[in-house]
Amino acid sequence: MSFANELDFLFSRRRMIQGMIGASSASVISIPSAFSAVNADANGLRAPVKRSIDLTDPAQNLEAYVKLVGNLDPTIETAGWFGGDIFAVTEPDKPLRKLFGVEGMGVLRIESQSDGTYRAFNRECAFYTDAESGEYIDSWNNPFINEEVEVASIHNMTVNAELAPVFKMDFDGEVQEVPFLPPWIVQDQIDTAMSLFELHVAPPNPLDVKTWPRESAGPINRISEIFQRSARLSDLQNTDLTGCSFDGVWTRVGPWLPWMLQGQAPGHIMYRTFMTKPGRLENMPERFLKQVSDKLGEQYFSAPKSSTWGAQNDSSFTVYMSENRPAAQE
Fold this sequence. Notes:
This protein is about 15% helix and about 35% strand. It is α+β, with helices and mostly antiparallel strands. It has one domain (about 5-325). The chain is globular and about 65 Å long.
């Protein structure tokens, strides 16, 4: 079966399972034409680009996405950075409340497979920061419970995923299938291609409420992740490039973090961050690289090996369980 035919076959499976797991906007391709013609010289904008890529074709869409987030060359590891703030969402009539900041990275390597899919090998880590000073924090005064709690960094050694028209990823031992054909907004007149990838899942919470009454937010972890990236269209469709840079934003909505000791209190948290693709480690912020090296070790500067494929992925919840005991109830 050819590469394109295999993707067509997988895409037909996507339509079949869509009714079972729910459609999302990430499963629909949307490619409007440029909003308006732009005088590049007068406005200092990029020159118009003739579009040669067809993002309505599953094979080209998937290849473009791999090139955007990582690199088509399986020997190249790509570093990505994100940073921003985390807010508490509580009562319907209360504004969001900034709790602390976050800064993190991922190191990604992608291997193409003979069946037309890709295997993404990713390792990620992040540290929480003081809401005002931006300094990394080891403890935090939780204003909701008036208690000083120990902060647990994000350090997930293995976060692998299959990239295909049916996107598969392990969430705490349960494989989730999400339709994968992310939409793009292409503006030829300003040499811009904008990608949206999002997933909305509700897997069981590995932190059982009876065993972890202060750490568990409940039996289900409802999580939404929204990634919005912008790149140069000319880079994306340049066949001489195996990867291209991007700038974007990452938004995450999820339950209280275990180390916050919020228990089943009503509400949840929202991450609002910027993200970019430095590519090489030497392009990352020096302060952050030192923090990773000092606190976690240099193993977080490389992607997982191919041999990790099929192993259960790490998450903030499972890692917390492996490193901590249930907090004493007051």
